[in-house]
Amino acid sequence: MTKTWNNRAWFLVLPVLLLVAFNAIIPLMTVVNYSVQETFGNNLFFFEGVKWYEDVLTSERFHDSLFRQFLFTGIILLIEVPLGVAIALTMPRSGPWVSVCLVLMALPLLIPWNVVGAMWNIMALPDIGLLGYGLNALGIPYNFTRQPISAWFTVVLMDVWHWTSLVVLLAYAGLRSIPEAYYQAAKIDGASRWSVFRYIQLPKMNRVLTIAVLLRFMDSFMIYTEPFVLTGGGPGNATTFLSIDLVKAALGEFNLGIAAAMSIIYFLMTLLVSWIFYTLMTRGDEQ
Amino acid sequence: MAHWLDLTWMAWTWQTATFFLVIFALLCAMTIWEWASPGGGPRHGILGLDTTRGDRLFISLLGSAFIHLGWLGLTDMPLWGGTILSLICAYAVFRWV
Amino acid sequence: MRLSRWLVPSLYILFLLLPIYWLVNMSFKTTNEILGGFSPWPKNFTIDSYVEILTNPVWYNGYISSISYVIINTVISVSFALPAAYAFSRYRFLGDKHLFFWLLTNRMAPPAVFALPFYQLYSAIGLFDTPWAVALAHCLFNIPLAVWILEGFMSGVPKEIDETAYIDGYSFPRFFVRIFMPLIASGIGVTAFFCFMFSWVELLLAKTLTSVAAKPIAAVMTRTASTSGYELGLLATAGVLTIIPGAIVIWFVRNYIAKGFALGRV
Known about the structure:
The complex is a heterotrimer of chains A (287), B (97) and C (266). Chain A is an all-alpha fold. Chain A is built from 12 helices and 3 strands; from the N terminus they run βαββααααααααααα. Chain A has one domain (43-286): Orthogonal Bundle (MetI-like fold), CATH 1.10.3720.10. Chain A has a two-stranded antiparallel sheet with strand order 2-3. Chain B folds into 2 domains: 10-39; 40-97, no CATH class. Chain B has helices at 14-36, 53-74, 80-96; strands at 43-44, 50-51. In chain B, strands 1-2 form a two-stranded antiparallel ribbon. With 266 residues, chain C is mainly alpha-helical. Chain C has helices at residues 2-27, 31-36, 48-55, 57-90, 96-108, 111-124, 131-155, 159-167, 172-183, 185-201, 204-208, 217-227, 232-262, and one strand spanning 91-92. The relative contact order of chain C is 0.14. Chains in contact: A-B, A-C, B-C. Chains A and C meet through strand 1, helix 1, helix 3, helix 4 and helix 5 of A and helix 1, helix 4, strand 1, helix 5 and helix 6 of C.
């Protein structure tokens, strides 16, 4: 659609701009202010320059939680995206079961995040949980409050449970937009199942898959509530991801300066990634 | 109603205030530039991206933020070295990207 | 081939339902049975936990405050986003692309970054511990989302409709409410669904911005778990009850979900 050039459209955008700016810019400015000062309570602040940034960037603790964050995000992307596409490919294309499937699959997305954590906690308890009891009964030593490996396994399984449906729904919507004629043409040409996927389905899903990867990347990058309720970041610091570490520093230890500097670094990273994905997406639109 | 205007919790310093004023002034300057010569000078730069001036400003700002962070994290030299490097990068971005 | 067609989705749905089954199972057990050991279904079936939650004001007030801020947020998000989405879908204006990108970055920003300044901001303007604080704070990510989804739906409406209406003498507000909004009714429904969803599931900001009066159900749960020992039965029941509103809402919009996702704008 060709759009008309009209600067008065600004008036339509203004309410949104003001409300979001109120929520985004004032807090962001405050975080920047905190990040360069030392506080001793009672609103007494002392200018410290870039000391906190230096502390955060060179601290072992930050490197570790950053590494854990990237590891976690990498693992869940590698599992959820292929799994979601595979499930979407096997879903019926029409019929009464489609609605039922969609509703059941969307269910985990509508559960409050702390309930997801609590649910998996109950599920994974070694003595009375289905998963914990089951694994131990099979002879696999499993205790997510003691063994880092078990904790990671549970957190990853929980995230796969929680969010794979999002990839399924997006990929399924992309598949549905392919006209039936394409499949018939492929059938006449005697195309294999693989080449139908490679040359018809995958290109059509390109855009929705970019969005799926973007959303899963960003949402897993800011994950807080579910692992916090499930493991509390433990055992030790084994599942302390960036957001958990940040909240620990800000509200737990009241290290305002450190927490603020961490927030800014964290925010800049998400800004960079959103920009890369947004550029990729809008380039796809133009082609 | 006085507590509405109480901004002490925001803990302003003149350094950060200057920083935000500079950003704000840059945005104003970009608006005036755009108004004086509309279109934004779009082009296909060396990175294969189609950018306008606004994009180039954004890339320079984000880039200089990361250059400063990298400078702090990786070297012990004074920070203004990072600032000089950012300015060089910003020039390069406006020239070629 | 025929077999795998239904086998894979069925196994996946089974995997999705198992933890939910386990939660429901726990909610119907007595505390003694829960602590007594592993049992795959309730032996002494009881609805005591449900009675406790639905009659104790500490619990059911949590539901009321959660639902009230979610509804306020959905109404604000959709009504603010409608004109903005129209502007983005119909016009080009100074800085439009950058503005759109800036809006989207707020959908991507981690709430943990904003938690502390939000607490101080909303205390400073006197809204702390009210549903309004949470509703306004959730606008941070819901308004950009609503603009994004609505813009997709609006771009699907041909521009000729606008032009014809203006020629017929409609003013902009009258055209927008009488002609344009009915055309994108399903889009508004989908948008409201996603705003509801993201406001309902978020906890970090909701917990930070409330203390007693407007405490959301999710926060009541976490505090109960830590203060009054580990009452798994009650916790499970509260969890089951938080799934129900979501399930109802999904059922109403089930035919539109795929369409909303098809635009790829969630």
